[in-house]
Amino acid sequence: MALLPPNQIRELCHFASLSDKEIRSDLIIGEIASENDYTSNFTGALRRNINSYSHTGLKAKSFVLRPPEERETGCDAAIIVRRGRIGKILLIEGKWPRLSTANYKWDSKQTSSGLSHFSDQLSRQSTFANRYAIVEMFYDEQAFGASASYMQPDGSACVWHRDAVAFESSRGGAPNVWSQAELIAMLSQGTHDIAHIVEQVCLCVEGIPMGMPDSPRIDILDFPLPSNVLEISAE
């Protein structure tokens, strides 16, 4: 059973797509400094678009959790979609791999182990994959109309966590730093736009419905969350 009625799902998917395209336009002209900057701007734009233009009863509120509440999820942001006391959690790990720059080293070595930082994030995310919907969101600085075939034309290219883990397992051996060629190979297997991701969460295809405390007590959720949280509620 879907978490939201069809009209609210359509509207939320539209706002998600619009917000991603708005921030990609900023990335294209150099107004975004980092992948964390993109993620924060995306959730902020989504909040503003919902609160300014929703005609179906959607509302949005942002939370920045204090360090004591921040947990290691391997992700940058969480979007909570709720209706009453039931909700779904979507975790987002944003990456800006700068694929327009040949051989750009978008992944890095862990200081302690020397192994892949991205692989470590995938491993940490796996702890929560039985409860949350989790997506890897790859940002594209290419001009609209100039994206590579494996990217999305208007926004970011999204890969479900389980698909990224499946590709990771095919790399073999210790999780060494990902090359640009490996990332392109994974993206070439298929990506989704953010509207599809949000739709699948709202349709309860992805993620598990969970009981939620009364808003705005998001900061005391018993669920591990990254520090950047956007709560979307439906009347």
From TrEMBL:
The organism's place on the tree of life at top rank: Bacteria
Name of the protein in its database record: Uncharacterized protein
Lineage summary: Bacteria, Pseudomonadati, Pseudomonadota, Gammaproteobacteria, Lysobacterales
